[in-house]
Amino acid sequence: MGSLILCHDRHATHPYEITRIHCKIYTIEELCYYLCNNLYLIDYTIMNDQLCNWLEEELGLATLAGNLRDVIRLHGSVEKFVLTILKSSKIFREPEMIRIQNVLERLKNQKDIERQKYKGDNLLESGEIEEAILVYQAILNEEPDESVDPKFYGKIYAGLGAAYGRLFLYQESARMYDRAYQICEDKALLKPYLYASYKYMSLEEYHILLTKHDDYVEINSQMRQEMEDIKEHLQMEPSNIMLEKWKQQYRRSHI
Q1: What are the sequence ranges of the domains in the chain?
Q2: 190 and 216 Cβ atoms separated by less than 8 Å
Q3: pLDDT value at 149 more than 80
């Protein structure tokens, strides 16, 4: 059963505007919601006296405002500033606060473009596939950032390959994995590329593809062996489950 969260009853007469996205905020809950859903985009612009004044004057949160001014005065980090707000609100339980803190720590020294990729990776991992694709595509649509390793973009293509694969768009998936391999030259990318290719190509097309790279035949053999191992495991598993059920029934009948 979920726990109840007691919201603050103060509602600002004059909203605070997040200029970066033109978002108007009226409550501490809305501020925390914005922060938690934009951890990947938060930067030093959130640390300002205007926000401190708004919290004090509009929401009556004088203690929080004072603590935030101390962070600014002592040249504290953006991460500390954000965590001070989130902890003060008492909206989030400890496990969620630990997760947020870990994300902020990971993002601390990353460039904006790296933060964007991290956002895409997390969306992909959490099953928000379409949203992850939009983030990856946005990175590729921008001018190339020469401050990052060229292989960074290969990893973006690999992320798109994984995302399209989860949507069963295997031809697009194969195309993205192929681009990723051309950039990164990482043989680990050949396996998902071949798998995606196998899923959308005819058998004849796939066999022709295997002749185009020295490593393709070996990797294909590895994949076939892995599939055989999985099939064998699936055939054995039902009998093991049934055996365990018989054991449990036997034990209950002899208590």
Answers
A1: 7-109, 111-201, 214-255
A2: yes
A3: yes
Beta partners for residue 25, in sequence order: 16
Return the ∠ at Cα 163 (arms to 161 and 165), rounded to 5°.
Answer: 70
Residue 237 reports pLDDT greater than 80: no
Residue range 180-207, pLDDT digits in tens = 999 999 999 999 999 999 999 999 999 9
d(CA 106, CA 40): 10
Range ranked top by mean pLDDT from 75-79, 154-158, 231-235, 239-243: 154-158
Both tokens of 22, joined, read 């033109």
Q: What is the pLDDT of residues 83-95, one digit of tens each?
A: 999 999 888 888 9
Q: From start to end of the chain, where are the E strands?
A: 16-18, 23-25
Q: What is the reported pTM? A: 0.66
Counting other chains too, the contacts that 136-142 makes at CB distance below 8 Å and 24 or more residues apart are 136/160, 136/163, 139/113, 142/113
- CB-hemisphere CA count at 13 Å for 10? 15
Question: Pick from 45, 106, 112: which is nearest to 78 by CA?
Answer: 45
Tokens 């603590």: give the residue.
67
Q: Which CATH architecture has domain 111-201?
A: Alpha Horseshoe (1.25)
Beta strand 23-25 with 16-18: parallel, antiparallel or unpaired? antiparallel
